[in-house]
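The protein record filed here.
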Amino acid sequence: MPTTPYDEANGTVSPKHVLYSEILAVTSVMRKNSRWATSNQTFNTRDSALASNLGLRRTGPVRGNSVRQGSSEDDLMSGFEELKREVRNTTDIKKVPITALLAPFFAIIRSPLSTGPITSAALSALHSFFVCGLISVDSPSIDAALAELSSAVSHCKFEASDSSGDEVVLLRILTVIEDCMCGDLGDQLGDIEVCEMLETVLTTCAQMRLSEALRRSAELTMHALVRVVFSRLHRLDPEKEENRVLRAEDQPPGESELSMAPSQHTLESPSAEKAAELPETTDAGALSSPQNFVRVEYGLPSILELLRVIINILDPNERIHTDTTRLLALGILNVAFEVSGPRIGDFPSLRTMILDHGCKYLFQLARSENPAITHMALRTISTMLNTMRKHLKLQQELFLSFTIDRLAPPITGKPPRHGTPSLKNTSVSPRPGTPATASPSLEPSPDSNDLEKGVSSPHRPQVMPARGETRDLLLETLSQISRHPSFMVDLFTNYDCDINSENLFERIIELLTKSVYSSYYNDSLQQNSITSQYLCLDLLLTFVNDMTSRAEGASAPWPATYISSEGLMQSKSTKNLVLTGAARFNTKPKTGLAFLEENKLIFHDLSPEVSRAKSLATFLKSCTRLDKKLLGDFISRPENLDVLKCFMELFDFKGKPIAEAMRELLETFRLPGESQQIARITETFAEVYFASGPEEIKSQDAVYVLAYSVIMLNTDQHNPQIRKRMSIEDYARNLRGVNDGADFSPEYLQTLYDSIRKREIVMPEEHTGQLGFEFAWKELLARSRVSGELMICNSSHFDKEMFKAVWKSVISAVTHAFMTFDDDYIIERSIAGFRQCATLAGHFGMPDVFDYVVVSLSQATSLLSDSLPIEVPVYPVVEVERQSITISTLSVHFGANLKGQLAAVVLFNIVNRNGNAIREGWTQIFEMFENLFIHSLLPTRMLQMEDFLGGVSMIPLRGSSNQPSRPAPRSDGLLSALSSYLMTPYSSSQETQVPSATEADIENTLCAIDCITTCRLDELYAQIIKLELDPLVAAVRALEALAYERTVARLQRESDDVASTFDTALTPPEGSAHSLPYDPASVFLLEMMVSIVCQTSDHIDELWPIVFEHLRLVLSAAPRYSILLIERAVVSLLRICQILTTKPSLRDQIYISFDLLGGLPPIVANSVAEQIISGLALILQNHREVVRSQTEWNLVLALVRSTISHLEAARTSFDLIQQFVAEGKDQSVTVDNIPGLIAVLDDFSTAAGIIIEVEQQTSRRRPTSDSASSPVVDRGRKAIDLLYEILKLLPSLTEKTDDHWRLLLPALTSLSRQSTNASREIRTAAFSQLSRAVLGPLVMPNEDEVNELFNRVFFPLLDEMLKAPPHSETTEMRVRAAVLLFKAFMRFEIRETEASENWDVHVLWTQILELAEQLVTVDKSDQMYETVPESVKNVVLVMNAAGMLVPPQAPEDQRDERQRLLWDSTQERMERFLPDFLAEIIPTPPPPPEPPVTVTSDAEPGPEQEVPGATV
């Protein structure tokens, strides 16, 4: 309609012109009808009035029926003539009461004499009046006019003609009603007028015999009217409007009563025969006097009536309405919800109607077999839940539970791989959730007796799974309902944390995650399953996105008016315990009660008022998760009578009829089958019920009998197998005299009988079909009155618990979607989902989630391999842009796998930012590194290995041709060649033909390289060393596990396989131990692990045990691995030992490592000698202080000794020893290391002798001199000098100890031994230093040490010289040795003998003479014959002078026993090789002369006097 009313001032025609035009239009149509075709009609309507005005009396003629009929027709026409006369002289017709202007038109519309065209013209005129503004809010008497208008269009009657013309009339009616209600005048209408108009339109919509076009037009009009009506709720005051409703209800019936009764079979206007009489207003003056008309604008009463009518139409059990009508009502209701929004919930009367019958009918229609009904019902439910969900807590739970059950696939014999959710849809959810009394089944089906795992309550009947379009509709509806960011939070807080509700959050997530898998759909659901998969994935990712938004700050505070978040979480915890306890109770009551008591769910509230029986009974009655049949059996056992009594006392039977009391009782448990148990229950009930004081019952026994009769009557009246039902007379007859000898009153029994007959007592687990639904719905409403409103808040308080419960299944579903779906949008959303899950995991501190994300994405990358080759194939290498590119199988496949590349980029972006959150996921990361390494796709930085010798080198992928670069060893004869052979870590490999690479392979490889570059693996590798302790330990453990698998575990497996090939009765050949070929991956893993450990020295305490265990296992079986792996293990161990030197707590581990290296087999030790001594040298040079004890020095020097046989290693070893011994700040000779140093120096000299011997044997000639330039001989000669330096240091080191001789003797022994070295330089130097030491002040043995000196130093030296082949140099050395021997004897033995009377040189001297004899006998040279006698002579003379060697004396031998024995032994042995030599040196003395005669006198004794001539 135009906004500007018609007016000449506005440039339009005047309203008066419009009025005349419409009068003409209507009367013209009327004159075409036979009733008004004659022109002799008289208009005497006002004759009597005119006569009265003139003072005349006028009497009208008496008319019969025909005259009255004609006058009625005349009145219709005359009304227009009168109207024209009245307005002819009126300048502004807008001042004329609108009732007077519209009265003739209303009369036409009401009149049954009118035809369709006439009525249509009158209605068209009304429409014109609305358009031109003639009918407006400013019109006089507008309220009365609106009432007349409503009555007229609502009771329009006309003679039916052709159907099309009649429908035009109806269409005009719809237009006028829309003009009235949708314009400015709509606010002026009253409740009655609105109801009349709405009823008219609704009836038109429901007329099935009308054309489709008209009904659709009427439906659109109805939608427009509903929008206007329900939008009014936003302006109404709920409290005032509710009071209006209450006042209207208190009025007597029939007085201003609102009522709408649309009919879909008859219309109240088209037929004159069916028309009703309408109040006619023929007095225009009456219509023009509205001053007493009082009107209240329409409001809640009319809206409530409209809602009632619409909801009643939805009743699926009301057969008077068809699906078409219900579809119409659903559309209207949906519009009402859309327009009113949440405001509708502010009106209790509207809210109550929707919560009860509205939801009830909508939910039932949602399972309709009519697709259109299902679609519209779901749409309406979605709108309702989006607008009123705050008030629909339990209704929403029911609908969501039903939706989940419908979306679950049917049960098959074997569940799909990814798991199938339960389809059991009884009145109790298969998941922990709403009990039977609160979750009515929307789909009646047979009962199921199986209990789902983990569920403590019986199943609901199965529902038919939704298929095809219905399934998509359900998912779309679920998507619509869940569009709120707080939806999942609301589910969790309102249901999952409520002990009496289902775990809807967990169920929905489970459904969505499983529905992403194609295997979740059986054959009947496979069609169009991709749409369902997409929808479910979108819902999942929306949930993750909403939670991420909350984690990033888009969270609302939890309202203080709600239950605290702590309280809800406590409720959730209690719920889990209750579910577990109930499940165990349903399996075995005793076990369940023990669990409940242990967790303080029963018997925790004991007091004088609360006994154990009452505490247990309270739990049994309140817990809805218990099996009702088992509960009935449990409480009726003889041992549980006290529990049964307390259970009964929990009911409030006061004032309740026995039928209701029994109904309430039997709804809580199922009666057991045994008669004795039933009797116990009945007796207890009788006692408790009688104590409540029921009317008309005189005794407890009467209650007992009456209770039994109620049970029997219920069975009789409602068991379909019983054909002949019990009558009231039969029932009364059976109860005669049981009321304490008297009868019950007929009225009492009739009431009881009718109660049972009309309403069956439904036992638990029998709530099926419509009866079960009605019962459960009643219980749901009862619960909803106390459950409170839905808590709605987009809070992040519960996100962590929610994420903990579902993260694994969510990530698995996203991974499956990413790997399976090809839609770019889905892939993009999946990638975002991965990142958001990682964000949440970091926000909540959940490393398990990161690990799962890493595992999931790593599987999607295709970079993992079930088994990596040990021997790397030879791949083609091409040069692209001056870079060498290896075209491997992995690079080709990965480069062609776009989805795998996307997964890799996402994975490593997540890992790069969240390394500290990863634990187990490191295994997959390093497995990918390993695979990339094998296929030459890793960055160069990650392929390097540190070395003590050559710095940094690349890890070779194949055999000896790729061995690490290092300085070439010097070629120094046979030892060098042998060393080079032993050091070669690879066996030769046959060259294989290199395959060619296609252009596509090269392009794919370049794509793979670009992707790897984008992943920034080198940055990740660098970030690992910056990890916190826990993730760092996890990373190292992952590397160790992978390395272990490729070394120790693989060796064990292959060894077992080899052993199994031999016959069990035979022993495998000796030396057939299986060994592994070179495996580059094992070296790569070891290098990475050790590199990380070495760069994270702050955490060496935690990392050392992990790495050492692996190194120990590898080195313990060193001969069975490739030499390069062993070399890298040695280097790794020594690199870490350098770090250990800075950790006093780990100092002992250094020597455990040294001991491990010292235990290497010689051939292995020689191969890695360079690495061992280089690492050891670095440690000792930088941290000399770590070696303190003798044991530690022994281990260190033992390692040094193991390297002497290696040419290059020996150089470093000697330099190290030389630093220890040489004078200066680095000198480290101590009492603890002297033995070891002596042994090492001795080995150096011995090694030089071996070299000379090998060269002599090789050349088969006697060299005239040593190889003076040989570094080995040079080191051996220097070692002799160092030995003497040690001897020089001994006095100062041992002056305060008794260790001098213990340390001195090994040095002398070594010099003695090296005095026979094959090298002339060494033996000369050794003998010189030995002579210098023995004959100098450094050697001063005591009495006990002299023999040891000769036996371990001199005698072995002479023995070795005696064995030497004859040679001039040999003779010379023998001579020198003999001279030294006799000099030492003279110095030590004779000196000590002079100093000690107990000194006995007999044995030692005898041995010396025997050696002299052997020297003369073996070496018959002149030089020997000159030297030995001369030396013997000197010793004999000295011994004689010392009184040790005394010849016999005659005639009386005065020598002691030692002298005699020594002389005899000396004489005997010397006679063998020097006859008469002793007599020449020491002749036997002549006999003494006669003694002189001494003369004595008798005088006193005096001094003796010599006799002349006596010899003194």
